[in-house]
Design goal:
The chain contains eleven helices and eight strands. By secondary structure, the protein is an alpha+beta fold. The termini are far apart.
């Protein structure tokens, strides 16, 4: 039996019951009719009161179950994106069960209601195919994890930090503090630029100098600026990680930072490490061992990420240099804007000038 046939049978049974009730009412006298109406009204009031009671009790139970599931996910350190999706799904399912229960308390046939609801669901599903696509997209996003909460992404013409991943849409917060809701269907099938996925990013600057200026002087000046900034990767990302670890150990030795900052462990392990290392000396020794162990695990074939300055183009009015440097993703924009100013102020001190667009015009002599 198909779903449409089941719903048709349910509708026929309801109409047959209504017809029999009408025929029965016609055969009653006035006194019996009034008595029956009074009893029916009292019974209906009792059912409504009971339904209201069931609603508030069910709402209380749903809130408790929701809080229990949420606490379990927090204790297990479940991914925030997955926990948000599951909690939303749990709430929808529980409220649907509550509605069906209330309908049963009111005396309506839940089987017929479910059949009619299922057939209506098919029609609504066909009408809201885009919404179902967004639901499927949300499931795919949680399974494939192209991004997670806290990542900075660019998709569907918007860019911002992901704050929530819900059943039908993802919420991002733009740099100017706008909340944008993007449907999950487009995100699961379209292109996404996840700026937070990689640990390191390359920063590019295009610097135009005048013809006749020494390219080597400009190159050496820019490379010196890069070498004096600890945020710039000098050779490779592996060496940069080791160097950062050594700087943290050196700062902790002079008590300039708390030693606990040296151990980058998950929150679930922090308390264990705190109990294991009680004093600063042992904690520093453990941090040094972690740094040495990481240094031993560095691959022999390292990717060269050293800064470079090359001649990019011989333009009409200038020689264009392209400067490249690698930084951590979180330092990208700070380094980009700071070195724009540094390059503008330091190159003239080295005798390098920035040209303006110019055009030479030669007039023939009057002779």
């Amino acid at each position: 039996m198909t779903l449409l046939q089941a719903s048709a049978l349910a509708a026929d049974s309801v109409s047959a019951k209504v017809s029999s009730d009408i025929n029965e009412l016609k055969s009653l006298s006035v006194d019996d009719l009034i008595h029956r109406i009074a009893n029916g009204a009292v019974d209906l009031c009792i059912k409504i009161a009971l339904a209201i009671l069931v609603f508030y009790v069910g709402k209380f139970i749903i809130k408790r179950i929701y809080g229990l599931v949420q606490s379990i996910m927090e204790r297990r350190n479940t991914d925030t994106s997955l926990s948000t999706f599951i909690l939303s799904l749990v709430k929808i399912v529980l409220y649907f069960i509550l509605i069906v229960t209330i309908i049963g308390v009111l005396g309506l046939e839940t089987g017929s209601f479910l059949a009619i609801f299922a057939s209506a669901g098919v029609a609504i599903g066909m009408a809201l195919s885009g919404t179902l696509q967004n639901f499927a997209g949300g499931v795919l996003i949680l399974l494939l994890k192209p991004y997670k909460i806290g990542d900075y992404i660019e998709a569907q013409g918007f860019s911002g930090k992901v704050t929530e991943i819900q059943i039908f849409h993802t919420i991002i917060n733009t740099p100017d503090n706008k909340s944008i809701l993007i449907p999950n269907g487009g995100l699961s099938t379209g292109s996404i630029n996840n700026w937070s996925r990689e640990e390191y990013r390359r920063v590019d600057w295009v610097v135009a100098i005048s013809y006749g200026d020494d390219v080597n002087v400009a190159r050496d000046t820019i490379l010196t600026l890069f070498a004096n900034d600890s945020r710039i990767v000098i050779q490779s990302n592996e060496d940069d990680r080791v160097a950062r670890r050594q700087r943290l150990i050196a700062l902790a030795t002079h008590d300039e930072i708390p030693p606990e900052a040296l151990i980058q462990a998950p929150k679930t392990h922090t308390s264990w490490l705190g109990r294991l290392f009680r004093n600063k000396k042992k904690l520093r020794q453990a941090a040094q061992r972690i740094g040495l162990e990481r240094a031993r695990q560095v691959r022999r074939n390292k990717t060269d990420l050293s800064p470079s300055v090359i001649v990019n183009q011989l333009a009409d009015s200038s020689v264009e240099l392209k400067a490249r440097a690698w930084v951590r993703s979180g330092d990208y924009w700070a380094v980009f804007y700071e070195f724009n100013e540094l390059i503008y102020t330091e190159l003239p001190k080295a005798g390098i000038s920035f040209p303006f667009p110019q055009l030479d015009v030669h007039l023939p002599s009057a002779n």
